Amino acid sequence: MTDATAISISDLTELATEILTRGGFSHPQGAAIARTIIAAERDNCKSHGVYRIEGCLRTLKLGKVVPDAEPVLLQDDSAVVRVDAKSGFANLAFELGAPVLAEKTRKFGVAALVINDCTHFAALWPEVEALADQGLAAMAMCPSYATVAPSGGDKPLLGTNPFAFGWPRAGDTPYVFDFATSVVARGEVELYRRAGKQLPEGWAIDADGNPTTDPEAALSGAMLPFGGHKGSAISTMIELLAGAMIGDFTSDEALDFLGTTAIAPRHGELVLAFDPARMSGGRGNPIAKGEAFLDAIAGQGARLPSQRRFAARKIAMAEGISLSAAEMAQLHDLHARGLAAVD
Amino acid sequence: MTDATAISISDLTELATEILTRGGFSHPQGAAIARTIIAAERDNCKSHGVYRIEGCLRTLKLGKVVPDAEPVLLQDDSAVVRVDAKSGFANLAFELGAPVLAEKTRKFGVAALVINDCTHFAALWPEVEALADQGLAAMAMCPSYATVAPSGGDKPLLGTNPFAFGWPRAGDTPYVFDFATSVVARGEVELYRRAGKQLPEGWAIDADGNPTTDPEAALSGAMLPFGGHKGSAISTMIELLAGAMIGDFTSDEALDFLGTTAIAPRHGELVLAFDPARMSGGRGNPIAKGEAFLDAIAGQGARLPSQRRFAARKIAMAEGISLSAAEMAQLHDLHARGLAAVD
């Protein structure tokens, strides 16, 4: 790639922070958003990388996020810590709540972080990784926009509802997965549409509820959950736990609230954390037991999730993040013109 | 069915308890096992119904379960309650731990029940239903025997690792699902073998790791996780949380320990519970919000999980449980001859 520029993680984070703050975010909000976006770009996770900066600014421009929100932490003597994001993006809210979640998890063995009234655009893996880095196991989940039909149904109701899990590994990157509970993320269907390609079977139904491989028909119909009725059940669980239970939007309410899937959705989030040291009750070393099991998976030649990200991260940490000339040009345009550069 | 006998739930529970105690189980153990088995039979969930009685006796006959184990409850000021099943079946251990789990959940918002050193033959839905009946949301999971290859792998390593979830509904049966994280339970493959039928594609691989539709080849090879790499990841999470983390067997260790899949496996179990009233933080009524969402699913004509069980339960509660002459004969034989009637 002759047109690629290598830029250090810290320089790119600073540039992204500047773009976001010049665009109108407070420094704490902009910096937290930038850290998350650049972590994704660093891992070559382009779907959540620098191209999301414009989306965050668009959401701001449309008045659908409070750019200088100051999240408020609420805690009592329970094992639940709550952060009211005050209609800001979720990132700063998570950063505020995570240390308290970790502390409560060490105290109680298991604890929960509830984030309410946040705008959400990011993957969940940065969150479970942050907890795994502290030696904790973690699950994270949230609703999104109603674009997925429940198994046996014919209309969008569930979101793509991501589910993420992290498990600490000794002296290594953690075991981490993070996936949409739909067959694929909506962006994937959009890529097929732009490429003029037919979808694989089993991804979607049209507006009448019939199976379709036409991306246009799929986008005006509904995507399907992964794994049939089992994936549909897990997605429903996410609506109940990370929507209804925490007093926040389910995916249909999130879509009703904003009326479009073109900007970042508004909802809540649920993160659970476990302290393996406490959960094991002195019955051996849980991390060592985990290693033995994960090694047995890898020993079959099966790839553990997130390995591609970790490999890209290693390169980015040594050589900087490689961005194309077009990506750099867009960043410079956003930096120079601010919201005027946002469609 | 001219040969069917209707027997009341309580009479059948009493008969099962007598069979189990005459076979050698202590009364508390036998009664707890009988309650679980008859709950399954009542719901016409035959795979966990009366036919399991012989399996429990077989496990006892082979000396692989302690029939008069007295489970021990361990608790501290954390949100985790632990029950050491003392090598007995899981049922009595759960019954001992569940009230303390419920109490801790109300106190802390979220809490966990860890069961260690138990023998396990039952579905998990009775457990999440018992918690939902008390107004709590719950997740339950456990390893089993290594019979499933991880996605991308070629040898059995994961168990069929069931995952269950329950959510309380106002004035109705709860929202409950409980499924194997393999495409199907192992018993299903066995049914195809007995019927001389080929398996659908995507269920299994042979001993060389190649896809197979031959049930014999599948049984000596490995089953596959549901939903490809996503289901495989969830199953791995279950090994880590409900095996490694709680200081108990992963599915490969469980199989090593007993050396056969023909009797009930030995491992631990993890149950998480949530108090929606506390988790909602005063932001509306979580149960009412859940109802609205579940009604929207049902409003599309999509069936909620467990509805078939609940319908069967209603009939059994009104008319008794219907058993065939062969089933009744086997129960009477087990009752009369005890362990001598067990293969």
TrEMBL record, chains A, B:
This is Malate/L-lactate dehydrogenase. InterPro entries: Mal/L-sulf/L-lact_DH-like_ah, Mal/L-sulf/L-lact_DH-like_NADP, Mal/L-sulfo/L-lacto_DH-like_sf, Malate/L-lactate_DH-like. Its EC number is 1.1.1.37. Pfam families: Ldh_2. One of its GO terms (molecular function) is L-malate dehydrogenase (NAD+) activity. Belongs to the LDH2/MDH2 oxidoreductase family. It is an enzyme of class 1 (oxidoreductase). It comes from the Bacteria. Keywords: Oxidoreductase, Plasmid. It comes from Paracoccus aminophilus JCM 7686.
